[in-house]
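Notes from the 1:1 (GR / supervisor)

We went over the backlog. Supervisor wanted to see one worked example end to end before approving the batch request, so GR pasted a single chain during the call. The sequence is below; no edits were made to it. Supervisor asked that the structure be written out right there so they could see what the output format looks like.
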Amino acid sequence: MRPVPARGSMASMTTELSAVVLVGSLSPSPAASSSELLGRQVLDALAPHGVTGEVVRLVDHDIKPGVKADMGPGDAWPAIRERVMAADILVLATPIWMGQPSSVTKRALERLDAELSNTDEQGRLATYGKVAAVAVVGNEDGAHHVSAELFQALNDVGYTIPAAGITYWVGEAMAGTDYQDLDDTPETTAGTTATVAANTAHLARLLKDSGYPPA
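Structure output shown during the call:
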């Protein structure tokens, strides 16, 4: 994983940006979560680029299965959706389980499918102009496969993916060390997280200042 030098300058930060990190950990709060740790590190790295944000651990909420914006009484997704749609940047932070994004992460993607029918008067999806990035942790290889699945789904529902839009850490195969158990963040992961933040904020600011043309 080689960090890509970020371009741009602090002088260009004239537009305020917001971000929401959706954490797909299978462990409810207050249990420690490697996915949330890396997701929060992305949020921290976004801060110097004029981005404020919040973290939502999905498993803490009763998100009903389905592909509608609101699946009825007791569904927690509508409130989460409001926060997602208000943000300029969406970060999906997921663990790898059985070589796949977590089921919780996939449920969020399924609920985002509803945005395909959410357009403005010029035919553009409401997600156009919003940027998405990915953070992945696991104890086995598979970060590239997981990011490919997430990138396709996010782009399909209207999000734009920045260059080098993933940061990840995977431990030794068949080992038991979690990201949260490391004494220090590996330099390569920290550098890549910084690049993800710089590129994501840069692209989000460009799109917010000059959006996509009408459909």
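Supervisor's comment: The chain has five helices and six strands.
Batch request approved.
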